[in-house]
Fold:
Amino acid sequence: MPRTEEQYKDIREQKKALIKETAMELFAQKGFSGTSMSLIAKQAGISKGLIYNYFTNKEDLIKTIIIDGFKIIIDVFDTNKDGVLTDEEMVFFLKGTSSILKENTSFWKLYLIVMMQADVMKLIENEFMEFLAPLLKTLVQYFEQKGVKDPVAHANLLGALLDGITLNYVIDPEHFPIDSIIDLIIDKFLK
Amino acid sequence: MPRTEEQYKDIREQKKALIKETAMELFAQKGFSGTSMSLIAKQAGISKGLIYNYFTNKEDLIKTIIIDGFKIIIDVFDTNKDGVLTDEEMVFFLKGTSSILKENTSFWKLYLIVMMQADVMKLIENEFMEFLAPLLKTLVQYFEQKGVKDPVAHANLLGALLDGITLNYVIDPEHFPIDSIIDLIIDKFLK
Amino acid sequence: MPRTEEQYKDIREQKKALIKETAMELFAQKGFSGTSMSLIAKQAGISKGLIYNYFTNKEDLIKTIIIDGFKIIIDVFDTNKDGVLTDEEMVFFLKGTSSILKENTSFWKLYLIVMMQADVMKLIENEFMEFLAPLLKTLVQYFEQKGVKDPVAHANLLGALLDGITLNYVIDPEHFPIDSIIDLIIDKFLK
Amino acid sequence: MPRTEEQYKDIREQKKALIKETAMELFAQKGFSGTSMSLIAKQAGISKGLIYNYFTNKEDLIKTIIIDGFKIIIDVFDTNKDGVLTDEEMVFFLKGTSSILKENTSFWKLYLIVMMQADVMKLIENEFMEFLAPLLKTLVQYFEQKGVKDPVAHANLLGALLDGITLNYVIDPEHFPIDSIIDLIIDKFLK
DNA sequence: GATGAATGAGTATTCATTCAT
DNA sequence: AATGAATGAATACTCATTCAT
Structure:
């Protein structure tokens, strides 16, 4: 009995997710050029050819991983919100950073790798800006509302700080005291 | 009649510097595995083989570039100093960060790439710790002396911040407002 | 729909045999370092890359060729036999040497090349001793039973003689009078 | 004061001998393609360029080593002698084989390597025949005079035996019982 | 006579991608 | 949908040889 269209779609979605998940871990661990398609296939328990059934090539694979990752993060943070953050929401956002880092360490490591690699970065420039711009805008608005002297510098400072925390955390999650640092930030930026 | 030893030494040093400089730019631009020895040779206007006259292999090349870079930075900052930073020295250090970033953008980009790349990182782990440990210690001592509640978190926060600034600056030097951010840091951390 | 496992296995075995055969001829003709993987591929009518689908590297290739060769020879001669050779069996063994040389000239040439090449020899040392030791032991036992004064020297002499015959035969199979020499040996060693 | 022509000639001869000696050891140890000109230069304590001052290329170097080696051996054995060997002379020749192997192990190993390598062999084919032919002729004459049934087979057998002994000796000089084997040959072939 | 920097063709090996089944 | 054999271009690295000094 042939499978229904629905079932086929399910299989496709599952396989695609499996490939993406496997590839993400490996890219984060060994870098983009350091990870071969063969290894991804082997690790995922499928054939090399099958990957090309779902992704047109290696670049498409990493691009999809990153962009889909952004989508999830955006959903979580709802960074597109028009309104202005209250202090409470900001605390929620900063505390959320910690748990989102812990739960998606591989993704964030990959994110940093991609940011450093101009060639790969070009592939996702547009999506990257779509992701980052509203976030930065929200931060600027937040500081404007707090009445600080240079809200743009404040927003950039906080953005850089979050990047730096991400960097240090993904490199050595065991030893980097992320939670006490987040507390410190809340103390320094919200009072 | 052969050249004098002096002449040979001169030639060697100049060529080595040329290769290191060229390779650093390319590594920073395209990553370690993304940069081929052929490209380095082509860009430097020499033959592939000659690189191997000066560096035993690709790893030796990047290792030498990073370690020599550290040496220069250490000399500038004198991070091995035993004493404790005064506020004045801290300001000097932070302002120095800005100019050292501007003058060695490629090196710092390479530094971040290397930090993200576990396999390359292994090559220079020892030298990296020798460079970083005293710097972090100095920061901790500085915050201890200021009497803050959690000096280690403060030091790590400032360290992460400097990493984040480096990251944002090397990715887009034109648009990142590094100087006003440094001023803000001085304002936030020294008062 | 993929091929059946059986089909894949068939393809693999045929290709592997083709590569081994081609490589053996070339190694025997031009030596180990004198034979490039490119040339083997070209001669076999396949791509360079395919060789690495079947053998992990050049060393693995020559090692497999030699070891598989030994296996065949051992089967033919049954050198592991525990008992002692009769004169009749010794005649059979010596006459067999002639035909085994004629039928596997390339292999024996390769065998000699490998013996002369210390670095390649190291790769197969163990297998080589497993092959040679029982053969030599059988020869010693044979001469012991014949009651000659120095059976070890006799065995070594005969061994060296067989090596020498192999050497002369593979260098110039057309002109070396192998059969009359074997007859002479039978005459000189068995009476 | 400039050196006299005589002195220059002396220097040339000494340097040439040094290069030949060094190269011979290395070729015997690591094979022809396995030995680089750089290594020879380093081992001999001279520059790469200097080797090309004395030998037109690598092939010329090995060719000269082999041919000069033959010349010395021929002188020692005087294989060009027209007359026929007496039994006494044959004993002297066989015993001499042992000492000549012990004193020139590297040369004989190189000789075997070259014999196995068709490409290199071609370079010295003529000189090789000039060396071997009279030797074989002398052996044939010796056996003719002894009145054996098949003197050519006898000569070839003895020749192969000497090759085999050389092979076994150069591979493992410590353990191969060359002298008792030579005694055995004298016993088997002269009685 | 002597040096060693420099070249460039060559080597082993890897890997993204294709395609017949 | 799925396989893995096959390709070929690219990569790091080696080395005989040249040549200005």
